[in-house]
Design a protein that fits this description.
The complex is a heterodimer. Chain A has a single domain, classed as MetI-like fold (Orthogonal Bundle), CATH 1.10.3720.10. Chain A is built from twelve helices and four strands, in the order E-E-H-E-E-H-H-H-H-H-H-H-H-H-H-H. The two termini of chain A are 42 Å apart. By secondary structure, chain A is mostly helical. In chain A, strands 1-2 form a two-stranded antiparallel sheet. Chain A has a two-stranded antiparallel ribbon with strand order 3-4. Chain B is mainly alpha-helical. Chain B has a domain of 176 residues: MetI-like (MetI-like fold, Orthogonal Bundle), CATH 1.10.3720.10. Chain B is built from 15 helices and one strand; from the N terminus they run ααααβααααααααααα. At the A-B interface, strand 1, helix 1, helix 3, helix 4 and helix 5 of A face helix 1, helix 4, strand 1, helix 5 and helix 6 of B.
Chain lengths: 306, 276
Amino acid sequence: MRQTQVGTRGSGKKKGWGVIPVYVPWLFLLPSLVFYLVFKAIPIFGTFIISFFRWEGISFATMDFIGIRNYITLLSDEVFLLALWNNIIFILMGVSMVTVFALFIAVLLEKGLRLSNFFRGTYFIPAVMSMVVIGVTFTLFLSPELGVVNPFLERIGLGKFTRAWLGDPQFALPIVILSHVWQMFGFYMFIFIAGLKNIPDELYEAAHIDGSGVWGDFLHVTLPLLKPVVAVVVVLAMINTLKVFDLIYVMTFGGPGNASQVLTLRMYLVGFMHNYMGYGSAIAVVFLLLTLAISAVQLKVTGSLK
Amino acid sequence: MQTRQHILSTIVLYIIFGSVFIIVAYPLVWMLYSSLKPQWEIFANPFSLPNKFFLGNYVKVWTRGNFGTYFFNSILVTVPSVIGIVFFSSLAGYAFARFKFKGDKIVFFFFLIGIIIPVQSIIIPSFQIVSKLGLIDTYWALIFTYFSWGQVAILILRAFFRSLPQEIIESAKMDGCSEFQIYGRIALPLAKPAIATVAIFYFVWVWNNFLYPLLYVTSDEMNTIPLGIMLFRGKYSVDWGAQCAALSIATIPAVVIYLLFQDKFVRGLTAGAVKG
C-alpha cells in the first residue's frame, strides 16, 4: 500500500492530528534541496567526472575522454607536487602555531582578569575580516620600498634584515602562513574557551590539594580533559589551512616563481587561466580527497574520544 | 607573599595580552588612520597619526574608484542571499526536526556531505553550470550560489526546532493550523535568536567572499567590494591613502556587525565549526 501520510515527531497515539500528507516535508525541503543540488551537489560529482576528460571548457561536444591520464600527468607535474608540498608545510607550520597559540591565550584568558572579555573580543576581530583586506594590508606593511616593517627595522637598528619580504622565495610562504595564523587564532581561541568552561572547578581544587602548580594544572587537568576540543581544533585548522586561496592570491599569487604555490591556486590557474578544465578538476579531486580524509579522521577521533 | 605573587602574575598576564592586542590591533588601526592621511604624509612617515582628518581618500575611492557601485553591489548581493539562506534553511531545519518521513535520514546525510565539501574543489563544474544557465555577470549567479551553502544553517536551526516544546506545536495543530501555519506563526517567531545567529554568521561570510565574484563577475560595474579592492589596487598601486580607505570601507560593516552582536556571532561560528 502506498504511504500517503507521514508521522510527526512527538505525535501521540491520538489519530487525526499526528499525521500529515506525505508531500508536506518535501515542500519544506524543496528550496534548499534545489539550490543544493544544482549549485553544489552536482558540481561535486561533476568535478570527479570532468577529471577524466581533456576539455577546454567551452562546449560539451569537445570533451575528450582520456581515463586516468590527468592523474598520471599529476605524478610528474613539478608545480603540482611543489604546491602539494607547500600545502603540507602550510598545514604543519600553520596548524601547530595556531593551535598552540590559541590554546595558550585561551588558558590565560580563563584566569579571570578584569579585561579578559575585552581582549577576547578584540582577538576575534581578524576572523570576521575579509582575507583580501588582510592580504592587502600586510602586503602594504611588507612593501620593500616604503612599507612599515622595513622602516621599523631600520629605526630599531636592524636595518640589515630589511628585504623585499614577499619577493623572497624563502619568506613568501612563511609570511602567508603567519598572516593566516594572525587571522584565525582568535577563532580557535573561542572554541578552546568554550571547552575550558566545561571543565569543573572541583578538579582544579583537587589538584591544588595535591599541591600542583600552574603548569601541573595545565598538564594534569586541563590538557587531558580538553583532548576532544584540541582534536576538533586541529582538524578544523588543517582543513582551513588546506583551503587557503584568497591570502595567497592577494599576497603572492603563488610567487615568487612557484615558491608559495598551493593546490587551490594551482587548480584555479590551470582551470581558468590556461583553460585545462579536465586537468584542473584532477587537482580539485586530489584536494577534495585530502579534505575528506582529514574529515574522516576527525569523525573517528571525536567518536573515540567521546 | 601570596599577594605579591598574585600582583606579579597579573602584570605578566597584562604584558602578554597587551602585546597580542598590539599585534592584532595595530594593522587595523594603521589602516584606519592612514586612510585619513594624504599620500605625501604617508610616505613622509608611515607611523605618524594624521595631522588633520583628510577625507579626500574616501571621496576619491567612493567616486573615481567606483566603490559607491561596489558597496551597493555588495549590499544587493549580501542581503537577499542572507534572507534566502535563513528562510530556506529554516524550512528545511523545521522539516527535519518535526517530520518522520521516508528517506529523512538519507536526505539529512546528503546535506551533511555539503558541510565538509570545500568551496574551492567544485569551482570548475560550478562555473560550467552557472554559465550554461546564462547567469555569468549577474547578481543571481552569486545569490543562487550562496543559497546552496545553507547546510550549516539547516543544522543549527534543526537543533533549535528540536528543542522547542512539542506541546505548543501540538496544541496549534489541534486548533486547526496547517503545518505551514505552525511553522510561520509559531516556530519561526520562536526561533528568532537562532535565526539572528545564523544571519549574522552568513552576512559576514557572504560579505567577505572573494572566490565566487572572482569567477562569476566579468564587468566592473557588477563587482562586489573584495574584488573591487583588487581592481583598485591594480589602478592605484602607489596611492596608499586611497587603498587604505578602500580597505576600511570593506572592513567597517563586518566589524561593526560583529561588535554589535558579538555573543551571537561567536556562538554561531563555534557551533557551526564544531558541528562541521
